[in-house]
Sequence to fold (480 residues):
Amino acid sequence: MGGLLENYDEQDNLLWGEIKAHLLSKNPDNKHLKAWLDPIKYIKTKTTDQGPTLVLTVPSDFHRNYVIESLLDKIFIEMRMVYPKALIDIIVNHSEKDQDVSDFLEEPYVNQEITDPLSFNSYPSHNKLPNQGDKKKTSYLDPNFTFSTFVVGRNSEFAHAACYNVAKNPGQGGYNPLLICGPVGMGKTHLLHAVGHEIAKASPHLKILYLQAEHFLNEFISAVRNKKTDDFRSKYRDKVDILLFDDTQFIGKGESTQEEFFHIFNSLIDKKKQIVLASDRRPKDILKLEDRNRSRLEWGLTVDITMPDYETRVAILRYKAELLGMRLSEDVVTHIAKVSKRSIREIEGNLKTVKMFSELQGVNIDLGLTKRVLTSTESQNTITVDEIIKIVSDHFNIKLSDLKSSTRAKTIVVPRQMAMFLIKKHLDKSYSEIGRYFGKRDHTTVMNAIFRINTLHAKDLDIRNHIEDLTTQIHNITGV
Fold:
């Protein structure tokens, strides 16, 4: 069959049965999960250049779509625990009668986390994977969030490089802790998971823990109530080699929790265990964060990840479209990129919305359909050029007239260049159009201004802090 072998493997069939049973046992309160999992059957294993692929069947296109959208990531995680190189292919067997799952659609099984992030599966060793029986404990890592699937742009290249360096040299150099800062939906969690995957690949003996601050807070409260604080401390201080901590901005919620976080942080750093954190806000902007925790978070390296520019949004769209099997014309890609200015999640959400409408109406995706579907997004109220200029003038306490004047004083020039940079970033105006707002300056002046701020942003801490503060004010107006 041209480099492809297919055969039924009883061991793989048993493995699939174990995976289904384990998913159900970890989610005993989800009464609908069984209805979706039971009809999924193993039929064969394909051996390709990419590795072994387990072929699973479902009874209908509807069932397949639901499994892919809502269950496949959970199945894939379980599979990779015991069969690291295996892939999954789900096909429809129309000869089977579909189980009636319409009664279960009100409470679908979506995004249910693994109960204990330090627990590990007790599957029997797979006969194709020698020495895999004694698997080390690892945390939940999304198989889709790797360095190879992260689209790097000017908005994220420094953050990406820092994360990759940490993944290659955990606990070494001046990157501990590494703090990734940026607004919601920019790829911070993706980078956290990518670090975990890369370290696990190079050093499978290390114990990697990914968790969100909210989970940490709830777990600590539970430990206090049940008088198990010693177990809680031991879990985080003694049983973790790599800590990937998400949504750090919520750590300021409780004094006792901050006390535990402080000591866990110190313990791991003293033992040269790597800590990577993600936060929507910089430490100085986290409400009620104690000074000692603020200084700890700022101890290592802080990197920013911001909204991608137009070119990067186009690259992300093309990559996501390829994953979804969508062929998009250039004008469609251009339109989605131009109206998706708030976050990477919005980009992906708009793309999936267009895909869904195309499938429901049975029509091809063209610019007309895309504009109709995304009308609300396109017409959504956003910030104006004048509002951005006003934010910058207020931030630096300078007059609007000075900002738009021809003066070359440094106290005016740099804020003016920042305003041009922010207008281009958030409103995607042309260089000539931006120039008209600042005393009819030509497009080359605007291009040079934006290039200068981009350059300073990468190496000047004061400029970076100003840009971050201004961006936060803009996001407060746009509702992001």
Notes: The two ends are 52 Å apart (CA to CA). Residues 309 and 425 are 6 Å apart (CA to CA). Residues 97-139 have pLDDT under 50 and may be disordered.
